[in-house]
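so im writing up the methods section and need the Synaptogyrin-2 record in one place, dumping it here so i stop losing it
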Amino acid sequence: FACLVGEGYTNLPSSPELFCIFNHNEDACRYGIGIGILAFLACIFFFIVDIYFPQISNTTDRKYLVLADLSFSGLWTFLWFVGFCFLTNQWAWTRAEDVHVGADSARAAITFSFFSIFSWGLLIAFAYKRYKMGVEDFAHSYVDPTPEVSTPYSSYPNISHDSYQQPPFTHTAEAPEGYQPP
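--- predicted struct ---
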């Protein structure tokens, strides 16, 4: 998108009005810039999600984030393919006398949109791999953040009365030495 923002618009020497370098089609430049900026912002968002992903303890939230990454990457792969076809078609119909400056930027935008198809396709593969890992990754990498406090008494399921004293005022079969109850 930077190629199109920088040199995607030009004007004729006789007119101050700017037009898109791709066959004077404003939609071609807007489309390339639009999907480029949205892809850039989405990459920043998903990069931040990837940084904080191990700290997300809710498996449902993790699942939705991975599915969002998978579906967004799939959609953007398709949109980059459409963008490549659209920009290439419009560049093929552009007359050589209309291009004074910016031909290299137009070719660069077409080239980058072509390679973006494969880049976003690779992101689909990574997102699908993470989706397949599912809860397995969560079970191995999650550590309970609460500190472990040892209690002097046993918990309910594992009751052990060996460490307690005998309750007072209970009659046992054997009498202690030298003492007779009244």
